[in-house]
Design brief:
The complex is a heterodimer of chains A (161) and B (343). With 161 residues, chain A is mainly alpha-helical. Chain A folds into two domains: 92 residues, Rna Polymerase Sigma Factor, Chain: A (Orthogonal Bundle), CATH 1.10.1740; 69 residues, Winged helix-like DNA-binding domain superfamily/Winged helix DNA-binding domain (Arc Repressor Mutant, subunit A, Orthogonal Bundle), CATH 1.10.10.10. Helix content of chain A is 76%, strand content 0%. Chain A has eight helices and no strands. In chain A, α2 crosses α3. The longest helix of chain A is centred in the last third of the chain and has 25 residues. With 343 residues, chain B is mainly alpha-helical. Chain B folds into three domains: 43 residues, no CATH class; 108 residues, no CATH class; 122 residues, no CATH class. Chain B has a three-stranded antiparallel beta sheet, sandwiched between helices. The chains are: A mainly alpha (161), B mainly alpha (343).
């Protein structure tokens, strides 16, 4: 990967990577640090990574760092807390979207990750398995469990409304 | 397997995952229409699709970007140091030597040793270079040729004027042969050049051959050599009367090996060639500086290459005087060996 290709990867992948991590961690500053670290790793490994593989490579690095970060910090930030954080760039969630975000925040990390990679990035089960180290069957099971949980949460919220 | 109330959830999942065929999608729609109690659940399943918030962006992308790869610091430092040393040496030498250039112009065309003339200049130029090689008396390079002309300094070469050009042409070959036996040189004369030294100096040999076709220098030098051979006693007496610094006027300087490695006049196009050329220049300049400091050589001029025609025109005379040159970037550096003197 050349310098130009690396810089192009920044333009093309930084936003998506940042959204994925923010949705996962619910903390913009931590997400920024992880994005910077992922691109730092990509820069160091630029001789080994093709430009076409830069995006999944970034998500792989970010996922592993994120798991380590979660394990270390045990930080669970709710959407409301993020809204109080002046650094947040989120638009306040309303209605079904807010309920979905809340429900997403309650999912186990692995389920959250696979469903985010599936919906945000459009990766298929094999690609998600490559990033997370899971098999395709495991990915499908986790996605099913995640969506089932989300469906139930959404149903419960709508019942309350 | 068709969709039923036992497996509808996996069908709903495949439906929102987009992994169903058109026929299977129709089956799902038909199944939901036949089971109204599952319509709400089917709607909730469809809401589980997450959509990224495109307003969330990473604002500081420039901090992630990298500039073009540059040379390693060691290379930059090394290249800079080499270039700086080379530039300083080249610029400092003419300035430092300027004080020496203010000294009076040396007497021209002193007697030379016959051995030196015969061996180093087989094309019969026994006094070649002698006129310019007065020790300790640097001269401007472009003044070298006029100083060969004995007519301009009659008082310094009185014996040379006594011989007519016709006599010179006739006696010059004999004089070369006659000089060998008379190789007795006064103690202050320099050591003769060897054949190897001539082989090291193709330009010098060429310049000498060109001299043969030029009447004035040849006749003058022939006259001097003839004069030196015919009147050895008188010349020896003259030499003994001069200061020791002027005695060793016969140039026996060897052509420095590094001057044969002429630097390409064109600037290198790649950094590797530039580095190599710079190192070569620096090595040459450093070695020349050592020679200059030890009194073995002297720098004459640094001429912009824009004056190449003028420099080229003067090259021949300068080579006759054993003045050598090499190019450094946009300049040509003219350099001459100072003849050695016996202590």
């Amino acid at each position: 990967m050349t310098v130009q290709e690396y810089n192009r990867s920044v333009d093309e992948h930084a936003d998506a990577l940042y959204r994925y991590i923010v949705a996962q961690l619910r903390h913009p500053e931590d997400a920024r640090d992880l994005v910077q670290n992922a691109f730092e790793v990509l820069w160091r490994k630029r001789e080994e990574v093709n430009a076409e593989k830069a995006r999944p490579y970034l998500f792989t690095v970010a996922y592993r760092d994120m798991i380590d970060h979660i394990r270390k910090q045990k930080r669970i930030t709710l959407v409301e807390e993020m809204a109080e954080d002046g650094r947040s760039t989120h638009i306040p969630y309303t209605g079904a979207r807010e309920a979905l975000e809340k429900a997403l925040g309650t999912l186990p990390e692995v389920q959250k990750t696979v469903v985010l990679l599936r919906d945000y990035e459009g990766y298929d089960y094999r690609e998600i398995g490559n990033i997370t180290g899971l098999s395709e069957a495991q990915v499908k099971v986790y996605i099913f469990r995640a969506r089932k949980a989300l469906q139930e949460r959404i149903g419960n919220v709508q019942n309350l409304i | 397997m068709d969709i039923n109330r036992e497996n509808y959830e996996s069908w709903f999942l495949d439906y929102i995952e987009g992994s169903l065929t058109a026929g299977q999608i129709s089956q799902v729609h038909h199944f939901v229409s036949e089971n109204p109690d599952l319509q709400k659940e089917f709607s909730e399943w469809k809401q589980t699709l997450l959509k990224p918030d495109l307003t969330v962006v990473f604002h500081d992308k420039e901090s992630l970007k990298r500039r073009r790869r540059i040379l390693p610091i060691g290379w930059v430092q090394g290249l800079g140091a080499v270039a700086a040393v080379g530039l300083l040496v080249l610029l400092a030498l003419p300035l430092v030597r300027q004080s020496a250039s203010d000294m009076p112009v040396a007497p021209v065309a002193e007697a030379t040793t016959p051995d030196t003339a015969t061996q180093s200049m087989p094309l019969s130029d026994p006094v070649s270079g002698e006129g310019l090689s007065s020790p300790g008396q640097p001269q401007v390079a472009f003044q070298a040729k006029p100083q060969h002309n004995t007519a301009t300094q009659p008082t310094q070469l009185p014996l040379a004027q006594e011989i007519s050009p016709e006599k010179i042409q006739k006696q010059a070959p004999d004089s070369r042969g006659a000089q060998k036996p008379g190789a007795t040189v006064h103690p202050g004369s320099p050591q003769p050049a060897t054949n190897a030294s001539l082989a090291q100096s193709p330009r010098l040999a060429t310049g000498s051959s060109n001299t043969m076709s030029t009447p004035d220098p040849v006749q003058t030098r022939s006259a001097q050599s003839l004069d030196g051979a015919a009147t050895a006693d008188g010349l020896l007496a003259q030499a003994n009367e001069r200061p020791a610094s002027q005695e060793a006027s016969a140039s026996t300087a060897l052509v420095p090996g590094f001057f044969r490695n002429k630097i390409n006049d064109r600037l290198p196009m790649d950094i590797g060639s530039l580095l190599t050329a710079t190192q070569t220049v620096t090595q040459n300049a450093t070695r020349s500086l050592a020679g200059f400091m030890s009194g073995e050589s002297e720098w004459l001029a640094v001429v912009p290459r824009i004056s190449e025609p003028e420099a080229q025109r003067n090259t021949e005379s300068m080579e006759e005087a054993r003045v050598f040159r090499f190019s450094v970037g946009g300049f040509k550096v003219y350099h001459r060996k100072t003849p050695k003197t016996d202590s």
